[in-house]
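Format is sequence with structure; example below:
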Amino acid sequence: MPRYEMLSRREIPGMRASCQLAAQTLQMIAEHIRPGITTNEIDRLVDTFIRDHGAYPSPLNYRGFPKSVCTSINEVVCHGIPEDRALLDGDIINVDVTCTLPSEHGYFGDTSATFYVGEPDPMAIHVTEVARQALEIGIAQVQPGNTVGDIGFAIQQFVESKGCSVVRDFTGHGIGRTFHTEPSIPHFGRPGHGPRLKRGMIFTIEPMVNLGAWQCDVLDDDWTAVTRDRSLSAQFEHTMMVTRSGVDVLTRRDALLPHSEDLPFAKLGPLSVPAAFATPEA
């Protein structure tokens, strides 16, 4: 049987604080998403903001990762390494933020969102909004007694009904004082299968949705994952805790993300954003 990291009641406020710092970091970087900014500039902004708040940018040097944030553009599924490449009008980019608060022996907060750079085309909008809704649908399955398979099944059914595919190679994960731990949260599956959710479990849901086929390749840098058919890919992520009656989304933000959630076609659900901002049809 896998062992799950279960935080004590006294530890939960520290975990929540780290998750909120990750959310605030994502909110900060959203203001800078525009054509012409480089992903190295995004990396520097994230690194400075996190350190200025007494935390550490968790990806930096994690298993050799060379930067402080993951920036995944267009066909990059996840783990894109920041570089001097400038964002172009029409790109989509996922920015994946994780921080450790406090910086030594702290808690990990993990969240990501996909942003539109300039004017997106209809296919970019489609895959991004399907991914956004897929996260909401997955969160809705989080309650005591449900299984990990219930989460994956709900996400997969929705995504495939929209003509897209769900990446199999990368999953959500348990998190707390450890960056990645059990349970693994696949974004595909069968209802009633896998570990059963229990009050106090903390994990991420982070569906990666491809416009084409689900298969991925990892480039020679041993990090950057791209769609095998080079179709567009989008992702959204929250960290959450199973509660007595449902779910507490620890990385939920107080305001909408510019260049992502503030656009008229964004499909916003009440579990991912404050209910006042949710779109009725989402």
Observations:
- The chain has one domain: 12-277.
- The chain has a mean pLDDT of 96.
- The radius of gyration is 17 Å.
- The first strand starts at residue 56 and ends at 57.
